[in-house]
Design brief:
With about 300 residues, the protein is α/β, with parallel strands linked by helices. It folds into 2 domains: about 150 residues, HUPs (Rossmann fold, 3-Layer(aba) Sandwich); about 120 residues, 3-Layer(aba) Sandwich (Rossmann fold), CATH 3.40.50. It has 9 helices and 14 strands. A 9-stranded mixed β-sheet has the order 7-6-5-8-4-1-2-3-9, with helices on both faces. A 5-stranded parallel β-sheet has the order 11-10-12-13-14. Helix 7 links the parallel strand 12 and strand 13. Helix 3 packs parallel to helix 4 and helix 5 runs parallel beside helix 9. The chain is elongated. The structure holds flavin-adenine dinucleotide. The site of flavin-adenine dinucleotide has 26 residues, from helix 6, helix 7, strand 13 and helix 9. Flavin-adenine dinucleotide binds next to helix 6, helix 7, strand 13 and helix 9.
């Protein structure tokens, strides 16, 4: 089976390589670098922010490939639906495993906010996005043949303006320890406690949606959950977070979940390996002190 990777990264390239022949489509220098080692790389000329370019390039190449594979990103969920409609192909998101059998694709994908997986048998062509952290092998390195492409943008999107995104310089999806804050914190200044604890533990600070999206106390790169980042740390410590399904969807791959909440009925305790029913303002300073003592 032949696969074409769009928005190339290591995991998508590896997933594609497990199916057989594969190629990558790159728009801009960063993607060209990420695609290095793929047997064929289509170097698409144009503005990497123009989603319509990728759509046009995929439609131009689609007849040569059985499967279009992309990482799970906001952009790929947008363009994937459009490609699938144009190619009359199924669009399967959040794929966790993948193999070809008898000309069909056998796919497992997350369902119910990542709480379960569904097994599907899909016809090709198919358009897929893969869940992060599920395709962790090394794609075989080939000498890359670069093919230049200059498609006309599908013109579905217009860049109305460009503003730098507020960023705390955090890559929360890669953190091994996450101290995550929710609306249990009464004011922005109190988050300093969480930063102190994260520092003492050698971790990063994450947050629930209201902290980033509504209150804007932290930038979006801290945001964990269904519409934020999916994380898979060794330890996820949820402080003052109730544990609504949209938050839980982002943390189920954590090795250990611990929670501090003053409501014994908070749903987070159903998912926590360890829980403390107490006022966070009482417990967090104790944890900071203990973590500092252990470091000595
Ligand atoms: C389409 C959609 C997508 C969404 N995506 C996301 C997402 O990606 N991520 C996400 O997080 N949410 C998401 N949400 C929002 C989600 O439904 C919840 O509203 C949100 O997760 C709640 O945030 P919270 O737990 O911080 O706040 P709350 O639900 O208000 O919980 C605060 C908790 O703090 C506890 N608390 C209060 N005071 C203290 C104290 N002194 N000490 C200890 N505990 C205390 C309370 O008991 C409570 O459990 C989404 C919603 C929708 C509709």
């Amino acid at each position: 089976m032949k696969a074409l990777v769009v928005y190339p990264n290591k995991e998508a390239l590896y997933a594609a390589s497990t199916l057989g022949e594969y190629a990558a489509l790159a728009v801009g220098d960063a993607e060209l670098k990420a695609a290095e080692g793929a047997p064929v790389v289509y170097n698409v000329r144009g503005d990497p922010r123009d989603l319509g370019l990728r759509i046009s390039a995929v439609l131009q190449l689609a007849g040569q490939y059985d499967v279009i594979i992309m990482p799970s990103l906001k952009e790929t969920k947008t363009i994937g639906g459009y490609m699938s409609q144009k190619l009359n192909a199924p669009f399967i998101t959040d794929v966790v495993s993948l193999r070809a059998e008898g000309g069909k694709l056998l796919v497992e994908r997350y369902v119910f906010g990542n709480k379960a997986t569904a097994s599907l048998r899909a016809n090709v062509p198919a358009v897929l996005t893969i869940a992060p952290g599920k395709f962790l092998g090394e794609p075989p390195k080939a000498s890359t043949k670069v093919v230049e492409l200059s498609p006309q943008s599908a013109g579905l999107f217009r860049i109305a303006g460009v503003e730098p995104k507020a960023s705390g310089g955090v890559r929360i999806e890669e953190a091994e320890i996450i101290v995550s804050v929710g609306r249990g914190f009464k004011k922005k200044e109190d988050l300093a406690m969480a930063f102190d604890l994260a520092k003492a533990l050698g971790g990063q600070v994450g947050c629930s949606r209201p902290i980033a999206a509504d209150l804007k106390w932290l930038s979006e790169d801290h945001w964990v959950g269904l519409s934020g980042h999916k994380v898979r740390p060794k330890l996820y410590l949820a402080i003052g977070i109730s544990g609504q399904p949209q938050h839980i969807a982002g943390i189920l791959d954590s090795r250990i979940i611990a929670a501090i909440n003053n409501d014994p009925n908070a749903p987070i305790f159903q998912y926590a390996d360890y829980g403390v029913v107490e006022d966070l303002y009482k417990i967090v300073p104790i944890l900071i002190r203990k973590a500092a003592e252990l470091k000595k």
